[in-house]
């Protein structure tokens, strides 16, 4: 952990972050925007569910950002916040499922004629450019099912991200371990 150029310790805090490059972050950003539109279009003003859905969507997105930025000094915090993001999105998905059930609308599951086309569209990069225009044209059933599909994809990606974060922790350790290694290397280099 010593910088060979000048015998100074190599930095032990690795700059992390970069959440904006993550596909899961972009998907949660879309879910956040769609949910805001859904809540303000299809829920009654003053309905507590409106605020809960908007906050759950926001929490899904924001906790990815916060966890990514916290990773520089705490892998533990990164993993916890990534899991909070996943849990918030799961809560939001249940709200969408409740809305569909309570309003007598279909949830598009395997076997429904619109299920696979929706999954493919939600996976494509076309959605990134089209969703703001598309949401204006969708009815409540279509919009709720699109959000459920995106949430399912996001939670899958978040599970994979948590697995990767856990593996990185096992391989690299936490910040305290990295600080100790850097300090020991510095002491060993400067004995004399």
Task: Please name the defining characteristics of this protein.
elongated; 73% helix; de novo design (two linked rop proteins); 7 helices; two-stranded antiparallel sheet; mainly alpha; 2% strand; 2 strands; 192 residues
* Major beta sheet, strand line-up: 1-2
CATH class placement: Mainly Alpha
Helix content: over 70%
Overall number of strands = 2
C-alpha Rg (nearest Å): 22 Å
Mean pLDDT: 88
Low-confidence runs of at least 5 consecutive residues: none
**Total helical elements:** 7
Brief account:
This protein is an all-alpha fold and 192 residues long.
Question: If you had to describe this structure to a student in words, what would you say it looks like?
Answer:
- The protein is an all-alpha fold.
- It has one domain: 23S rRNA-intervening sequence (de novo design (two linked rop proteins)), CATH 1.20.1440.
- It contains 7 helices and 2 strands; from the N terminus they run ββααααααα.
- The longest helix is centred in the last third of the chain and has 33 residues.
- It is elongated.
What layout of secondary structure does this protein have?
Layout: E1 2-3, E2 8-9, H1 23-42, H2 48-70, H3 75-102, H4 115-123, H5 126-137, H6 140-172, H7 175-189
Antiparallel strand pairs: 1-2
């Amino acid at each position: 952990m010593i910088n060979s150029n000048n015998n100074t310790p190599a930095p032990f805090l690795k700059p992390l972050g970069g959440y904006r490059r993550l596909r899961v972050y972009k998907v949660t950003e879309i879910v956040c925007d769609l949910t805001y539109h859904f809540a303000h279009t299809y829920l009654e003003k003053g309905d507590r569910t409106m605020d809960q859905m908007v906050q759950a969507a926001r929490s899904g997105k924001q906790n990815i950002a916060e966890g990514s930025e916290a990773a520089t000094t705490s892998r533990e915090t990164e993993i916890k916040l990534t899991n909070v993001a996943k849990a918030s999105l799961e809560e939001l998905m249940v709200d969408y499922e409740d809305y569909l059930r309570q309003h007598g609308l279909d949830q598009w599951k395997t076997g429904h004629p619109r299920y696979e086309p929706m999954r493919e569209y939600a996976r494509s990069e076309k959605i990134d450019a089209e969703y703001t225009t598309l949401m204006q044209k969708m009815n409540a059933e279509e919009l709720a099912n699109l959000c459920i599909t995106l949430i399912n994809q996001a939670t899958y990606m978040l599970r994979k991200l948590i697995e990767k974060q856990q593996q990185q922790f096992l391989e690299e350790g936490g910040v305290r371990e990295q600080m100790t290694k850097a300090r020991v290397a510095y002491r060993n280099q400067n004995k004399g």
